[in-house]
Specification:
Elements lengths: L1 H77 L6 H10 L2 H9 L11 E4 L2 E4 L6 E4 L2 E4 L5 E3 L4 E9 L4 E7 L4 E8 L10 E2 L4 E4 L10 E8 L2 E3 L2 H4 L6 H6 L6 H16 L2
Antiparallel strand pairs: 1-4, 2-3, 4-11, 5-10, 6-7, 6-9, 7-8, 8-11, 11-12
Length: 271
């Protein structure tokens, strides 16, 4: 009887030990899996953080490049003289076809969308909503809602969102050498966000009827060193109308701007 009890106690002890070891093994497995998942998650976060730092560094380089170009431009315009027709004509004679292509590639040029029907030009006009004479700072293109709107030069999106100033859904892009473009009255769900780097031809949004608007159209503006410029001459610049651009845009001191573009190109060519 006593032996039976001893056998039972031994069996019970083995059972308890076996259960304990099994439970311990399960806990160890569970926590090892948790640890593995935590390690994997930590690695993913580290990679995302590294990628984010790389993007920030890239953006910083882009902003620094813009600032450097503007600094060069400001230095040169300080010593510049007012552009006149004879000086511009002489400048045109000195520019080779490749030089002209390089200049057009570095300024906002071409149409911002396939809609080329101009409904309102740059200059004084009777405002369609306020019914009073006001200066129109850009060009309006009437068109079909949903028509893609493209950036007209490389740059960084300074603002993308809804404007309280009447432009509705708007995108503003800062470009090299002091240029800025604005695309207004677009549909919601803009295709870029503030801080994005865009290339010429990038779709930034779609033609719409937002803000102070009487019908579907795109409002397009060009600014140069904070001054409004008539975009008309820029629209056809890539289509063989380069001379027209220089002769009809007297607000820009082209000698200084072209010198800045050439200096930047030469500096990049040496890299």
């Amino acid at each position: 009887m006593r032996r039976e009890n001893q056998h039972k106690q031994i069996l019970m002890l083995f059972f308890v030990v076996a259960v304990t070891l099994t439970v311990a093994a399960l806990f160890a497995f569970y926590f090892s899996q948790k640890s593995l998942l935590a390690t994997q998650s930590e690695l993913q976060l580290s990679r995302k953080y590294a990628a984010l730092l790389q993007k920030i560094a890239q953006k910083r380089k882009e902003y620094d490049a813009l600032a450097e170009d503007l600094e060069i431009l400001h230095e040169e315009t300080q010593a510049g003289v007012k552009t006149d027709t004879k000086a511009t004509e002489a400048l045109l004679k000195r520019l080779t076809p490749k030089m002209r292509q390089l200049i057009v590639a570095n300024i906002p040029a071409g149409y911002p969308s396939k809609s080329r029907r101009i409904t309102s030009k740059f200059g004084w006009r009777m405002h369609p909503i306020y019914h009073e004479e006001r200066f129109h700072h850009g060009i309006d293109f009437g068109g079909k809602p949903g028509t893609p709107v493209h950036a007209t030069a490389d740059g960084i999106v300074a603002y993308a969102g809804y404007s309280k100033g009447g432009y509705g859904n708007v995108v503003i892009i800062r470009h090299n050498f002091g240029f800025m473009t604005l695309y207004g009255h677009m549909q919601p769900h803009l295709q870029v966000k503030t801080g994005d780097f865009v290339k010429r031809g990038t779709v930034v949004g779609y033609l719409g009827n937002s803000g102070l608007s009487t019908g579907p159209h795109l409002h397009y503006e060009i600014k140069y060193l904070r001054r409004y410029i008539d975009p008309a001459a820029f629209l056809q610049a890539p289509d063989g109308h380069f001379a027209n651009l220089l002769l009809n845009t007297s607000q820009i001191e082209w000698q200084n701007l072209i010198a800045a573009i050439m200096r930047t190109y030469q500096r990049m060519a040496k890299l």
